[in-house]
Amino acid sequence: MGKIKYTLIKTEGKTKARLGKLKTNYGEYDTPMFMPVGTQATVKTLSVEELKSLNAGIILSNTYHLWLRPGENIIDHAGGLHKFMNWNGPILTDSGGFQVFSLAKPKDISEEGVKFKNHLNGDTLFLTPEKSIEIQNKLDSDIAMSFDECPPASASHEYLENSIKRTIRWAKRGKEAHKNENQSLFGIIQGGPYEDLRKYSAIETVKLGFDGYSIGGVANDGESTEDMYKAIDYSIPYMPEDKVRYLMGVGEPRDIIEGVIRGVDIFDCVLPTRLARHGHAFTKYGKINLKNAKYKEDFSPVDSNCDCYTCKNYTKAYIKHLINADETLGARLLSIHNIRFLIKLTEDLREAIKNDNIMEYRDIFMRDYYGENK
RNA sequence: GGAGGGUUAGCGAAGUGGUCAAACGCGGCAGACUGUAAAUCUGUUCCUUCGGGUUCCAUGGUCCGAAUCCAUGACCCUCCA
C-alpha cells in the first residue's frame, strides 16, 4: 500500500499521446483510461459487479456529497470507502472544488475557504482546503484531489489570475494537511483559456510536488471546445512526464480523443450515466436518443459493434419501452452500455498509440461518429 | 315518474359575454446535458400553401360579438319515488 505510481511506456509517433501504466493500491491499470463517476459512493444505477464487467479501473466519488451524507465518520467506521461501497478497485475523490462552482457564489469564496449552502437542508457550511483533505483522508480513497476554485467560463482574466493564485495557496495548505500515507494527492491546474495563466498555474502547482496533476476548469458550464483544447495545450508542456495527467470532467468522445492526442492520461465524466438516465446512447455512428419514435419497433441492439451485456442481450425497442415507462432497468442498461463505450474507446486509443496511428484512428472515429472529417 | 348536476383539444381539468385557438397537469413529439442540487431541464402539441381556416355534445336562437346567455334534443352522473 502506498502512493500511486505512473510509468510512461511510450509516446505515440506523431502526437503527444501517451501509453502508460498506473500502479495503484488495487492493481495496475493501463492509460489512457476513462473513470466512471459515482458521486454518492455509487455509480448511479450500477452494481460493483456490473462496473467490473465493464473493465472499469478507477472510479470517482465526491468529498462534498459524502461529507454531508452519510458523513465521513460513518465511512471511516465502516472501514473506509472501499469497504463501505464494496468496491475493491481504486477510488479517486474529488475535493468539492466543482461544488465551489456549482453551489457557491463568488462572494462566498474567501482566502480561508468557501461558504456553501447545504443543498439538502439549507444549512450554511464552510469548507476549507484542510477540511477537504481531512475528509478525504478519512474516506481513505486512493487519490485525493486538492481543493480548488473552479471558476465559470465567463470569469475574466483578472478574476482568474486572483483565483489561480488562491488555488495554489489552497493546494499548499492542503498538501501540508495531508496525512494519509496510502493516499496520493493531486494538484489542479486552472487558468481558463489563457496561456499565461495556465503556464503560471502549472509551474507553481508542480513546484509544490504532487503525485499527479490535473487540468481543471474545462467542463463547467459551456466552455467552448476550442477553449478546452487551449487549456490543455497551454498546461501540458509544464506537467511532468513521470506523473499521470488527468483532465477533469471530460467525457464527450471527441474530447477524450483530442485530450489523449494532446497528452492526457485519464478522464472522468458524468456524461455516460446522465445521458443513460435521459435515454441517450453512444454508438459508433453517433449519439442516439432511444426516446425517439423511430425505435419503437427496432429490435436490433443499441450498437451492434459493442461487446457489452446490454448490446448482447437487449434491443432498442425494449430499452425504449423501459425508458418511456420510467423503469430503472432502462437507465441501468444504458449506463452499462455508455460507460463500456467510453472505456472501449480508451482501449482502442491505447491500441492506436501502440500502433502509432492515432490520427488515422481519430479521423475514422470522427467520420463515423460525427459524420465529419476533422 | 320527480329533482338536481354534467358534456371543453389524445386524456384529465380550468374558463361562465369580447383581451379564448382556449390556463394547468398527463400523454405525445423533439432538443439540451462534459470534476452529478440532473431518473433533470427546455421547446412543441386543432388544421394550414403561415395569408388564414375550423373548434368547446348537436341543432336552432339572442347579441356588434357566444366555450360562456336562451330553446329543444342526445348521452352521462347523483338523489327521491
What's this model, at a glance?
With 374 residues, this protein is an alpha/beta fold.
Give the topology, please.
Blueprint lengths: L4 E7 L6 E7 L2 E5 L1 E4 L11 H6 L5 E4 H6 L3 H7 L2 H5 L5 E4 L2 H6 L11 E4 L6 E4 L1 H11 L3 E3 L11 H21 L6 E6 L5 H14 L3 E4 L9 H11 L8 E4 L5 H9 L4 E4 L1 H7 L2 E2 L6 E2 L19 H5 L2 H9 L3 H27 L3 H13 L4
Parallel strand pairs: 4-13, 5-6, 6-9, 9-10, 10-11, 11-12, 12-13
Antiparallel strand pairs: 1-2, 2-3, 7-8, 14-15
Helix pairs in contact: 3-6, 6-7, 7-8, 8-9, 10-14, 10-15, 11-14, 13-14
The chain binds one RNA strand of 81 nucleotides through helix 5, strand 13, helix 11 and helix 14.
Structural account:
By secondary structure, the chain is an alpha/beta fold. The chain folds into two domains: 5-268, Queuine tRNA-ribosyltransferase-like (TIM Barrel), CATH 3.20.20; 270-374, no CATH class. 42% of the residues lie in helices and 17% in strands. The protein contains 15 helices and 15 strands. It has helices spanning 48-53, 63-68, 72-78, 81-85, 97-102, 129-139, 157-177, 195-208, 225-235, 253-261, 271-277, 309-313, 316-324, 328-354, 358-370, and strands at residues 5-11, 18-24, 27-31, 33-36, 59-62, 91-94, 114-117, 124-127, 143-145, 184-189, 212-215, 244-247, 266-269, 280-281, 288-289. The strands form four sheets. It has an eight-stranded parallel β-sheet with strand order 4-13-12-11-10-9-6-5. Strands 1-2-3 form a three-stranded antiparallel β-sheet. Strand 2 (18-24) and strand 3 (27-31) form a beta hairpin. It binds one RNA strand of 81 nucleotides through residues 37-40, 44-45, 60, 62, 65, 92, 94-95, 97-99, 101-103, 119-120, 145, 148, 150, 188, 214, 216-220, 223, 228, 246-252, 255, 267-271, 273-280, 289, 291-293, 323, 326, 328, 330-331.
